[in-house]
Amino acid sequence: MRPRWRKVLHDLLDNKGRTLLVVFSIAVGVFSIGVIAGAHQIISNDMSVSYAANRPANVELRMGNFDEDILSTIRNTQGVKDAEGRRVVNFRVQKAGSAQWVSLDVVALEDFDENKVNLLVPVSGAVKAEKNEVLLEKDALEKLDVAVGEELVFELPSGLTKKLKVAGVVQDVSTGAGDFLAPPFAYIDMKTLPTLRQPELYNRAYVTVSEGQEDIQYIREVGGRLKDKLEKNGLTVVRIRSSETHKHPLGDTVNAILGILLALGILIVFLSSSLIANTLNALLSQHLRHIGVIKLVGGRRNQVFAMYFTLIMAFAVLALLIAVPLGGQGAYGLALFVAETLRFNLLGYRIVPMAFFIQMAVGLLTPIIAGLIPVINGSRITVMRALSGDVAGDENKPHKQEEKISWFDALMLRLTRLFARRGIHFPRPFILSLRNTFRRRGRLLLTLFTLTMGGAIFIAVFNVRVTLHDYIGAIRNYFRADVTVDFDVPYRLREVEQFGLQVEGVQDVEGWQYASVELLYPDDTVAENAFVLAPPAESELVNPLITAGRWIRRDDVRKLAISEAALVPFPDLKPGDYLNIKISGRKEAWQVVGIFKFVDQQGIVAYAPYEYISQVENLANRAYSFRFVAARHDRAYQDFMADKLDDYFRERGFKVRKSESGLSSMDTASESLDILVIFLLIMAILTAIVGAMGLT
């Protein structure tokens, strides 16, 4: 081996600390960009494939009870490919011998074997439920500590209980996808409904369209057509949900999260490159005398350049050997975490070719770009400057001694003398260290840049985290009721209020109404479905985050406040504008009085006064949903009151659908942002590592 290559090898092996610092500074940037690029590719591909593989419904219709004849009508509607009817009923359940009740949405299927829409993926146990058996969605196991073969106790509307055997565990990627407020699911055969004192009738229809399964506008048109047809048959359609076959409802949210992480990953690579440049500058400064000796014994400029370019490539290759395998593992781990959180499946572990090539490009090009200028400058240095440690300055003017003193040294000298005359003496080590700090201003600027940017990103990440939690706290303004009790039939406001106020701990009761409407474009095609909540106009249980306009009033007729999600189909919408809507089969023009912030995952949400909506729905002084204010507002007391009110109303013959504490809804809502917070914290830690390396 030639001496210069032996020197390169010794430079790598003799100073292991320096080698590790350079290698890890490259590896951190390569690892972060590899994790994000790989996870983005895996998630964007597997999320849509997994969702589509379960044949998700393009249209979900939530309505009153209907039978097989109505289902046939749905199947015979133009544009419909398949349609299945199911009954979804909320029950309180508990493991036999346990005292904790859990709310479940129980889905009754006609035939598990003939199921063609929203397929179930077996996880363990049986793949279908026989009579008096139940299958649990695997997410339900987080709240229910129950195993296959054990029994679940179901509380019936009458207050009686029935036991069903847990036959198996399944995964449902489609039902409830995107609805983070939905409770866990369980699945039974329609023959089990009489056991649970339920009629063998459907209340939901899941529909796939015959064409245009990726055309959301066409899907909404089919949904609107179905709604009109069903309402003409006397059925009330409570809500419609539309989705594309190959697009998960949370796909846009995940892409936004990954976009933020990709931006942070690029910043980390940028910081890593400045760290590499700084380290190589320091390395070549230490090697100035080596370069002088090499040139003194006949070494040429291109040989010096080749030596240190090879050293940089060796650092890069060592970094790639660390970062590429870990980046592949990290990308799959990140994708697996997202998949488990959002309930979809991955297609198996794999190295993503695109992420691999991105890592190779970043790992090789970043050190070259960062180290090119230091290497070129080092190879150009003269023998005299190299051997003098760069102290000689310009060797062509050795007689001008004063030019060798920099302006900073001169300033330090004057200040030192000035303070000395006044009896103030600085320790010489302090003066030397301060002088050396500013001696190499380029290296100082790189160090300050790395630390400043690393610190700024770290602070920004935590600011985003705090802002997200503050936003969730602000969203609590929409969930100010301590307990929400929903009934299967409408009850008079006065009746529920009289009963409710008799319960110890209840301080106030409000009845709320709701309606499902379709927002129409000017040509009367369906733009989007919206869910209208109707609290009393002066309700104190909702305190909206108004961004424009005002809140609803008692005397508002055909007026509503709408969430910012409406700005997607109507980007120019502002207070005072009119929206064409279809409500209860009628086309009307409603005025937008205000626009407010809300979690977009719930789709378009609007508010209108109960006083008007109850008349539109022919439910004057009646409501399906009631909000209760308790004496205390902590989560434990809310859960206690939710169970207490559920038992109380069931015992008195009320048909309770579910009773839920207000903070439980908020805890579920906050989960949609927890993923972003966790990822941001991971990136903040990586940024802190880069900053620490820069200081080192």
Explain what this protein looks like in three dimensions.
The chain is of the alpha+beta class and 696 residues long. 46% of the residues lie in helices and 23% in strands. The chain is built from 16 helices and 20 strands. The chain has a six-stranded mixed β-barrel. Strands 12-13-18-15-17-16 form a six-stranded mixed beta barrel. α1 (3-14) packs parallel to α7 (301-342), α5 (251-286) packs antiparallel against α12 and α5 runs parallel beside α16. The protein is elongated. The model is unreliable at 391-402 (pLDDT under 50).
Give me a quick take on this structure.
This protein has 16 helices and 20 strands.
Shape: elongated
Question: What order do the strands of the largest sheet run in, or round the barrel if closed?
Answer: 2-3-8-5-7-6
Task: Please tell me how large the radius of gyration is.
Answer: 34 Å
Question: What is the beta-strand fraction?
Answer: 15-25%
* Main sheet: strands, sense, barrel: 6 strands, mixed, barrel
Structural class: alpha+beta
Q: Percent range for helical residues? A: 40-55%
Question: Could you tell me the mean pLDDT?
Answer: 83
Q: Based on DSSP secondary structure assignment, what is the total number of beta strands?
A: 20
Q: State the distance separating the first and last CA atoms.
A: 33 Å
Q: What ranges have pLDDT less than 50 throughout 5 or more consecutive residues?
A: 391-402
Work out the helix count: 16
